[in-house]
Amino acid sequence: MSITDYSYCAQHIDAADAAQKSFSDIMEIADNIGVMLNEKLETAMLAEHAQWTNFDNASIGGSPGNITVATSNIDDIVTEMKQVIRTAGGGEMAERNGMFIQWREADFAKVERLAASQGYNTADDVLKNGIKQGFKYLDVEHYSTSKNVAGHVFGGVKKAFHVGIVKSTYGKVDVIKNPVVSSAQISGVGYHSRIDRKFKAWNKVVPILLDILVA
């Protein structure tokens, strides 16, 4: 696998501003760059949905087409996703690694409403504390993101989707004096970092990585 894709983040600091900043200020900038790069990495991952197996309304017993996610059919989505994974021979890997769905934010709210309505300890805990990232329900961990591509939600077995990252550039912040921006050199310093990365769904795990098609 050749690592040919990258995400980058850069911050320009004017020369006068840079002269007034402390070491801790610079470390805060570097930390913010790291947060931004991690978010770009997630965005890039979710854009790779064409590598996964389509899972649509027909997969949960309806007519072909995208799924309209509702509180009433979340159980169906989760249960049928698990059935698809087991049928594809991914049950053992799912037992080792666990399963997940990375919902849209509006869908995650429906998961919360569903969990709160179920009664017993689960509902009591949800009503008291709400649900957090990694909320486990029906033996699947539920996450939310605002970075899903429109019409696509990612689900499947954990640790099945491969990512390759170049270690020599990951986490490294370069300092550029008087950087060039829009073909003009500007006074100050530029802080720049990048992640060289590549996502790959190997042939044998494609059936257990699901592109949940949603309306």
Short description:
The chain is of the alpha+beta class.
What can you see in these coordinates?
With 215 residues, the protein is an alpha+beta fold. The chain folds into two domains: 5-45 and 163-198; 51-162 and 201-213, 2-Layer Sandwich (hypothetical protein PF0899 fold). It has helices spanning 15-19, 23-46, 74-87, 91-97, 105-116, 120-129, and strands at residues 5-13, 53-55, 99-104, 135-137, 140-145, 152-157, 162-165, 174-177, 180-181, 184-185, 189-200, 209-213. Strands 2-12-6-3-5-4 form a six-stranded mixed sheet.
- List the strand order in the largest sheet: 2-12-6-3-5-4
Largest sheet: 6 strands, mixed
The Rg value, from CA coordinates, equals 21 Å
Instruction: Report the uncertain regions.
Output: none
- In what range is the share of β-strand residues? 25-35%
Task: Supply the CATH architecture of the largest domain.
Answer: 2-Layer Sandwich
Beginning-to-end CA distance, first to last residue: 33 Å
Q: Mean pLDDT, as a whole number?
A: 91
Oligomerization status of the protein chains? single chain
Structural domain count: 2
- The number of strands is 12
H/E element sequence = EHHEHHEHHEEEEEEEEE
- The number of helical runs is 6
Kindly report the CATH topology of the largest domain. hypothetical protein PF0899 fold
Structural category is alpha+beta
Q: Overall 3D geometry? A: elongated
CATH top level class name of the largest domain = Alpha Beta
Helicity, in percent? 25-40%
